[in-house]
Here is the input.
Amino acid sequence: MSYFSYKDKQCFYKEYGEGEPLIFLHGNTASSKMFEVLMPLYTEKFRCILIDFLGNGQSDRIRKFSPDMWYDEALQAIALIEHLNCGKVNLVGTSGGAWAAINAALERPDLIYAVIADSFDGWTLNDNFSDNLLSERTRAKNDVQARQFYEWCQGKDWEKIVDLDTEALLQCAREKRPLFHKSLKDLRVPVLLVGSKEDEMCRSDLEDEYKQMSTVIPDAKVYIFNQGGHPAILTNAEEFSRLFKDF
Here is the structure.
């Protein structure tokens, strides 16, 4: 198993394949395990690197998540790139990992070729974000499959991780924290915004949100799948991989 240091903690990462570096950034309450089933779609062309953000998966646990979680995770991704010493990389971030990927590109465009931001709410949290989050987390805790997914990703302490994550996100929404630490106008790498019309975990006006973002980002494209749930990278796996390779 491979680790790198970030703020005196150990972050887990795992590699598959050879070629141009491609780093996958997982979403909230998930871990790098969610991407493992996808590796055959990417390893023929890419050196795929999966990371567990601090507090998740096989990385060190932390006392609490920052309400600026997606910025902190961006810094973790940057630390991984520097640790690998592999030159520029592509970033694929899904759900919360999409915010982390864009923040990383804003901070260090010199390290990143392109960003694929998948299945996230855009540049704002929707007005019902907190209520929807609490409802979704309550439902998930009482759903056998969701509980199994959490434990598969996180281990036996999954419920504590989910609660800490919920607490941080509610604080982010309550304090109206900026989701990006720099203006999207400053993005200097190509960005592909991807989502699905059937994704019930994202805002209902997702396509409009993405299109508004694309008018601000200097080099952005939008692709919305007609079918598939959350996230698109899993529910439209083969089409997504082809879309990424074309991009």
User: Anything to note?
Assistant: The mean pLDDT is 96.
